[in-house]
Amino acid sequence: MVTDVGHAQRVIIGTRDEESSGGVLTEVGLVTWRSLVKLTRTPVLLFFSLFMPLIWLVMFSQTFGTVFSSATSGGLPGGPAATPLPYDYVAVLLPGITVMTAIQSASQSGFGMVADLESGFMDKFFVAPIRRSSVLAGKLLADGLRMAAQAGIILGIAAILTLFGWRIPFATGVMGAVLIMLLAAAFGVAFSGLSNTVALRTKNTESTMMVSFSLTFPLLFLSTAMLPKALLPSWVQSFSTVNPVSYMADAARALILTGFDWTAIGNAFLAILAFGIVLNGLAIMAFRAQGK
Amino acid sequence: MSAAVTLRPEAKKKAAMSRASKDSVIDVQHLVKVYGGRGQEEIKAVNDVSFSVGEGEFFGFLGPNGAGKTTVIRIITTLLAKTSGSVHVAGLDVERDGLDIRRMIGYTGQSIGVDGELTGRENLWLIGRLYHMPNSLVDERVEELLEVLQLKDAADRRAYTYSGGMRRRLDLGAGLVHHPRVLFLDEPTTGLDPQTRAAVWEYLRRLHREEKMTIFLTTQYMEEADQLCQRIAIIDLGKIVAEGSPAELKAAIGADIITVRITRDEAFEQSRNRALEIARTVSGVSRASIFDEGVSAYTADGGATLLEVLRRLDAEKVPVHQVALAHPTLDEVFLQHTGRQMRVEEVKPMSRSFGRRRR
Q1: A17 vs B7: CB contact, 8 Å cut-off?
Q2: The domain containing residue B158 runs over which residues?
């Protein structure tokens, strides 16, 4: 064997890796750090990602609020009769808006992927001695944190609106809000599997945008995100039972209107887990296939 | 301490078992890469390419766009899967031991992969940390590189504010943070202005000379290959057409080139034909041909033959505008092996699909 002082530094690097136990966590953490730094460097994007949902929250609740109250003046169909609801439509809509925000952010998850593939930055990750799964995991973790933060901001703004007479019960308080943030993050991360799969397979921002956006509205409106199930036409009701958006919306709505409905919360996480595994499984396959 | 300590025990075993020769750091045998298939048209981007690069060697892949340079470099750096053949880096197999190979190599791609939202310092730091280097060592290396690459003043500015040359230098730095044993550079100076190009060349020479780094470079610039590389493989249409040191390759042409430009007047065509006839009859001229401005003649001894050619042209009153004597360049080498003039294209193709951007 050759003794070579010039290689001493390489030796340090090589062995250090084997000693460190937190290797994978470091890798994931670094990728997450990078995504979050990028996010904070472009606050304008964060602002506009919240702009639309907030417009929706205000406009929709105002426009459809009166329709909703007259439709429910005799109580919800099938519910206890003749008592006007103790909350405004905005309280019904709020969980839907948190889902909508998560879906919107999830749709954009693949954009960053396309950008990194195009710029050649992804090569830096691929040529580094790290696991490819760390790259995807780190990105998803950053996405999840961003989605949780967005849900938190929306809930916070809604809480401020209650000071101006908007009737939103917030039945489970801060704990419930944290749970909604968690749900939104989990839902968003699960759904971003679709955007990332399309992004990795097409390497094209337009295609990624089209696929995601064309699914967003059907998924939202054919679910209980905008209206409680009792007010939906029967065919939409049937579809909504297989739409994961409904489970997320129902759990979040219960947390705001009534209390900790653990069945709904459990169902929501199960639904998220199920379609999250499928969509992200596809994304992982697409990611592994890069360069193959 | 030994260099082999960088490898994990099982990798060491594999390295020992490998049939790759002991001295070669990069060993490529009968490499084939076919794109497409499954309904698409098949394109053989790399067609039975074999070569090896020794420890500490500065090796260049020279060829035009679409020759297969990028494909080969991406396969060796584990970024792209091969179709068939064997590829070893330091005795490790690219398919089985990708992680171990990536630990010891640095790579700078054709497209500049720096993150514009991060500062120069952060870009380098992130890459260094991805190699699991301890924080203090990363900081040290990053400062060192910023200094050497003359990016110190701009270190805390976001990379999108950088000029093309600065981005290229930063990208080069990202391939060096972990002090790789083998450095892969895919057209490192394409699109750079002459000063920056010279600076990058100087830095690469230093890396090679002082740090004994093995460097594998692809380029479409004859001059770059000539200036930097100890050994060159000329690649065209997926095949290696010639291999050797720049001097060897040029010597193989075995000729100096005399270029005679004829005065542009009404009798130009006639004069040029006359000059061609004369050149052909001068003893020592092995081959002569016309080109748009005059005549070029190949000869083993340029100095002596030039004089004779001039005497004869003068005696026959052929109006000579300019005469030049040149030693063969890699341009002639390329022309001889491919039958084509090498054209440098700076324009990037529209299709940017990953992994098969360029072949």
Answers
A1: no
A2: 8-243
